[in-house]
Specification:
The protein is of the alpha/beta class and about 270 residues long. The strands form two sheets. It has a seven-stranded parallel sheet with strand order 7-6-5-10-8-11-9, sandwiched between helices. Helix 8 packs parallel to helix 9.
């Protein structure tokens, strides 16, 4: 059992939590909490850390975790390792998934292995971890094929993002693109229609046809989309507002669009 906060494994986990560079170099990230740890794909799990208290109180649940590569740590060590104020007694180091653009656009079918018409969220410089995590979680619920991010978007393996995804990070294909404009040009060339959520949009989002292969461009929380990126949109769309509200939170706007696409596609399937 690990009882010292100076243990090298403890320092390793702490470094992964605090530093995106360390996560990129090691190709792993940290997942924390009982619910999300239950959902880790077995082939991506590197090491589990559980406390004595967790083993004593969780019974059969704890026994299930002990089947995997596992380290037992004291409660004090878990508190030092964890990113949350009140750790649940279980934490894991997980191998990063290498998705491709083909996965994201539905050509390979992602984890399901069944190709689908593209429904892609394209994020430019999203900075809030909660927004990114919520977009992934809502995206899974709405059935998007994947998420594309530019290099300035927050690290998807940031612990706050991971918690916000509630496990969707394991299942939704995603990629970071160094040349976002080049990627958009390629997508358009492959018949994917691009829509930009934009204040200059003339058509309401629910007046468009999202049953075709499509992608939604979502910009930075404060500044929106850059002109260069917005120029790749086939159509600017808007979400009509009542009252004095001018715009929505990035994750809320993305969710409105994703679920409208899901609604339309349900009609097609039916």
């Amino acid at each position: 059992m690990i009882t010292s906060v100076k243990n090298q494994q403890v320092k390793y986990v702490q470094n992964l939590i605090k530093r995106g560079k360390a996560r990129r170099e090691e190709g792993v990230y940290v997942v924390e909490g009982l619910r999300i740890c239950r959902e880790i794909p077995e082939d991506e799990l590197e090491t589990l850390y559980v406390t004595e208290t967790f083993l004593k109180t969780e019974g059969a649940e704890a026994e299930r975790f002990l089947r995997y590569p596992c380290e037992i740590v004291s409660d004090a060590v878990m508190k030092a390792m964890a990113d949350t104020q009140t750790p649940q007694g279980v934490l894991a180091v997980v191998r990063q998934k290498n998705w491709t653009l083909e996965d994201v656009t539905g050509r390979t079918g992602g984890r399901e292995g069944k190709p689908r018409p593209a429904c892609v969220m394209i994020l430019e410089t999203i900075q809030d971890p909660g927004n990114l995590g919520t977009i992934l979680r809502a995206g899974e619920g709405a059935g998007v094929t994947g998420v594309i991010m530019d290099k300035n978007t927050v690290d998807i393996y940031n612990p706050k993002v991971i918690r916000s995804t509630m496990g969707s990070v394991f299942r939704i294909p995603f990629v970071y693109e160094e040349d976002l404009c080049g990627t958009l040009k390629n997508m358009k060339g492959n018949g994917i229609r691009l829509y930009a959520a934009h204040l200059k949009g003339k058509n309401s989002y629910d007046q468009e046809d999202f049953t075709c292969p499509c992608g939604f461009l979502i910009g930075n929380e404060a500044k929106g989309l850059t002109e260069e990126t917005a120029a790749f949109a086939d159509t600017y769309i808007r979400i009509p507002m009542l009252g004095r509200v001018e715009s929505l939170n990035a994750a809320v706007a993305a969710s409105v669009l994703m679920f409208e696409a899901a609604r339309q596609r349900r009609g097609v399937r039916e």
